[in-house]
Amino acid sequence: MRENWTPTPVKVIDYHFNFLNDLQLENAILANAFVIKNIPYYWKKGKIESWK
Fold this sequence. Notes:
There is one protein chain. By secondary structure, this protein is mostly loops. The protein has 1 helix and 2 strands; from the N terminus they run βαβ. The model has no long low-confidence stretch (mean pLDDT 83).
């Protein structure tokens, strides 16, 4: 859950995430990056919903 959030994009000069390398994906690229600051953010317990 997030409230009152307007993403602020940032310029990425370089990045490296070991978990992306571990996935061994071909041609994986960073799709976007943004600042996370002063954002009320929390998780709620999930539930299974049937498709109708």
